[in-house]
User: Fold this.
Amino acid sequence: MIDTLSQSAIDTYQRCARRFYLRYVQGLDWPAPLTSSELDFEQAMRRGEHFHLLIQQHTLGLDVTPMVEASEDQILRDWWQRYLNQAQALIPSTARAQFSEVELGLGLAGVTLVAKFDLVVVDAEGELVIFDWKTGVPRTAQQLSATWQTIVYCFVATECGGQLVDPASASPTPVSPESVRLTYWHAREADRPVRLPYDEASHEQAHRRLSAVIMELKDLVESGEESAFVRTPNEGECRHCPYRSYCERGRVAGPEMEPEQLLGVEESMRVVEGPNDLED
Ligand code: SF4
Assistant:
């Protein structure tokens, strides 16, 4: 049974149901040996993770710049300078509060839907500004607005953001969708942040889409049929998939991905045995 879902797990499912099955239902470890191109890919993923960690430490008040400057990784040093010079300028200077690597969750369609944010700022008007740091290939506003990350982030922030606006309240009220804004900042296009607004219509649509995909996923998991989790017809998804050896799919390296597309999924979704304890 499904216990908790994140945008990464939903994204994994929509990219390939079989990959979701192998990772979360079967709980298989990565079986594929790395080729040289994949070692480069792994290095890029680790750099992205390192960059996120540096930002988190910096947000907590640690002076990590000397450590970055001492690094032999020129790409990491360049990203850091862009973060200092351009990303920080995007953060409201009159912020009432800010929360780094904060996780929020709510019950939806019988599971706990969680979102882990890089940074959420409560501005002077009590509105929520979400920041997500990207290190992969930049995507357009249109592409980003259609991702499960955008849908889950804005939906969860609206439903649970009152906890951040008013942390002292025992029963914080949801914030309005119009007071939630999501900014994607790409280290490779530091001067072109993508700002996405949100509104009531988007929130209602997100509710419908999330409920539908969660119910679909639950039905598949509860069927217990491996064959129901079909392989993606898009073999491009297989190029960096660690489960290729289970699927006899190609071994040519594909385009770059964001670290969270592979790494975050491991921690953000659990499939557990036993009865579901949440209401639909
Ligand atoms: S190799 Fe392709 S079909 Fe197999 S699990 Fe990975 S993405 Fe899915």
Observations:
- The chain is about 45% helix and 15% strand.
- The pocket of iron/sulfur cluster is lined by residues 16, 18-19, 22, 231-232, 237-238, 241, 243-244, 247, 249 (CB under 6 Å).
- The two ends are 14 Å apart (CA to CA).
